[in-house]
Amino acid sequence: MTLHAELHRHLGGSVVPRVLWRYFHRSDAELAQRFPEYPGFEEFYTKPRKSLDEYLELHTLVEGCQTLKTLPYFVYRLIRGAYIFENLAYLEIRYTPYLRTDAELSESERIDQMAEIVAMVGRASRLPEYPIVTSQILCMHSRLPNAVNRAIVDLAAQMPSYVCAVDLAGGDAQYADRLDEFVELYAYARSLGLKTTGHLYETPQGCYPELIPYLMRIGHGIQIPLRYPELLGQLAARHQCLEVCPTTYLKTGTLLDLQELQVVFDRCFDAGVDIAICTDNAGLHNVRLPFEYESLLTHDIIDFKQLQACQDAAFRHAFAWPHSDRPACLLSELLKSEVNTVALEAV
Predict the structure, then answer these.
(1) Domains assigned to the chain
(2) Which residues lie in coiled coils (predicted)?
(3) Beta strand 195-196 pairing with 163-169
């Protein structure tokens, strides 16, 4: 059995449609009335959108449900599904903690409550019955004030037992007017010793080379090999990894055909740039990580050797994976040790 690492999964988009619909019917009368039958909700929730901005609006549907009280419900089901159905050994969960705080509080009170949110997600994701190594990536947000985003960076630095990195989310087309601000926030994060990733070069409108030097990984980044392949050498020299989420680009209208990703993989492999294959929003897509692998293989976008290279890259670039090797190597050493023990006992 192959064990996998997932580096790009949003907490808001991780809830599979059936679980979310059941939650509505148990706990939210207004949304239950809006979606009385499951098939209609699944079709609404998982259908492709016309743009990334329209797609991101779906996150607000879930964010309002994920509170201090309900987060254990959602996180438990995320971890259970990841372990049983996806064979995950490692999972980074990313989200904006401010958007899970009580909206009736003042801004300063909500900032203070973020630590409780992070601790709750951390405790809820560490389950003895589902032994997955987990960590959190806290997302700054392109539509939040600078003071809130800076507080998110500070919180990430203050809670290393739960948090492994910071991110910038909220739609990459929104960065332009505040680019200097986001550059300063990333520089500040790096000065605190934090690891970094960011939603960048996902769409043609989200291409900001000013941010690249501050990122250890790039969330999506597909427009670099597609439109700016001259940048690939710099990424390879910095050992930066792209977090490529195939189904997302069809759901957001960024790509019209999955086959367009062949150029992304070919140019990155040729340039020596690592790719980790991810799901992004497994619930919104109603897919799991092994499906993303299978889809790329069956469309002849990558071969099995390249798939294994991407799987290796995911563990190599994982921010909080505690071992020097991926699980397959660890299991091989364990089995070798057992074989040697049996051989010695037989002598």
Answers:
(1) 4-346 (3.20.20.140)
(2) none
(3) parallel
Q: Tens of pLDDT along 240-257?
A: 999 999 999 999 999 999
In the chain, what percentage of residues exceed pLDDT 70? 94
In angstroms, the CA 120 to CA 170 distance is 23
The total number of residues shown for the chain amounts to 347
Look at residue 237 and tell me whether its pLDDT is greater than 90.
yes
DSSP for 73-99?
A: HHHHHHHHHHHHHH-EEEEEEEE-GGG
pLDDT at 343: 46
- Separation between Cα atoms, residue 321 and residue 315, nearest integer Å: 7
The C-alpha angle 50, 297, 273, rounded to 5 degrees, equals 80
β-strands 163-169, 199-200 pairing:
unpaired
State whether residue 275 is helix, strand or coil. strand
